[in-house]
Amino acid sequence: MYIFPMKRFALYFFSLLLAGFVTAEDAGVKRILARYQAIRPAAKDLGMYRLDWANSLDEALKRAAKENRPVCLIIIHAKYGDIASGHC
Amino acid sequence: MLAQLQPYIVTSWHGHRNEPDIPDAVKTVWRWKFQPPRGGGIPRRQSNVDLALLNSEGVVVHTFDAARNEQYGRRGTLQQYTAGELRRAVPFLGLENKPVKERSVKLPDLNGERGIRLLVSLRDNRMLAYRAPVVEVVPMTKDDWKPLAWPDKERTVPPNALKPWLSQIYPPGVMERTNPQTKVVYAIKATEGDLKLTPLKQEGEERQAILRGVVRLTDEGPGDFSHQGILEILLTYRKGEASPHSMRGYFNGLYPRNDRMHRDIRWLPLQAAIESIPD
To answer: Rounded to the nearest 5°, which phi and psi values hold at B204?
Structure first.
């Protein structure tokens, strides 16, 4: 099919423009996901979440008796502190 | 050291000596901790954190100050000291020759409920303990997701609508932003900035949008103290659904930390990986 050169140029230009947008969108998505992965701590930095945590000493003692296991109790001499999240 | 802690059920307790309900194990530890030194003299320096190792019947078999180490401050020595103290309890707990199976990482979640998890890190090269990531989970109701509903065209999202989870982006243990009377950390009271939610192309059964902009977080303490950073989040929506199905993104900012020694402010990178849960 014969396409008028100007029309063909416009079509070519439009598809390039579209490709450009798609690429920019994809690049944006990839960049966000790459940055998220780079900022997210690696497993080696999340060691405390490899431990078997209980929400309270009461719960830990009940489980210890049932599972015949020892308890490691961290005692903080302070009024506030959330050691499970780290915001303390 | 993590391998040595694998057999244990780990938990924590915090409080002061005038608390009405101090657990028996804590009383035992503090009786020893706060007794006057034998033969008089100056009490040894001690921290405000202790570890107590209890057998399965709840009896304290060993306890030690978490940071009382003669070489405290040298890299690696605190881990060696802790590992040594844990070894001392092994014969009393019957842990000799017990095979150690290391657990995989299990991050906090909401037991299957929907929410947002934030992994916050302060890149402080001087205070290495503060580099440890903070992990917070925030439950999200249907209404909480509404500000992030599918945008047919680009629109502004008020950062205040995202305050329940944006307000978790602050560093751990920054004592200068703690109420000196109550010892409670100053909470984030205001989230401001300019956020745009932009729709992307639709792909198959899913469509995506990007939330992008700068947010400033101001705490409730004196001095109109704030920190700010760039927020970029990729949201995924299922076809025909307005509420986001998943999200992944990050906050990348700077936190002005007081440097009392040099009477200056140190601008430290404060970063957060942000993700919806369950995966």
So the answer is: 60, -125
Length of chain A: 88
Are A46 and B15 in contact (CB < 8 Å)?
A: no
Residue A44 neighbours by CB under 8 Å, 6+ apart: none
CA atoms within 13 A on the CB side of B204: 2
List pLDDT tens digits, range B68-115.
Answer: 656 555 556 778 888 999 999 999 998 887 777 888 999 999 999 999
Strand ranges across the sheet with B246-259: B134-139, B115-122, B264-277, B246-259, B226-238, B206-219, B188-203, B155-157
How is chain A split into domains, by residue range?
1-40, 45-88
Q: Which tokens is B63 given?
A: 């306890």
Shortest Cα distance, chain A CAs vs residue B5, angstroms: 7
Closest Cα in chain B to A50: B105
> Which residues of chain A make contact with B108, given a CB cutoff of 8 A?
49, 84-85
| Cβ-defined contact of B9 to A74 (cutoff 8 Å) | no
Q: From CA B236, how far away is CA A35, in angstroms rounded? A: 17
Q: Identify the residue with better confidence: A16 or B116.
A: B116
Cβ count within 10 A of residue B161: 15
**Looking at the complex, does the CB of residue B14 fall below 8 Å from at least one CB of chain A?**
yes
Q: How far apart are CA A42 and CA A35, in angstroms?
A: 13
- Best mutation target, B8, B12, B27, B188, to test chain A (most A CBs within 10 A): B12
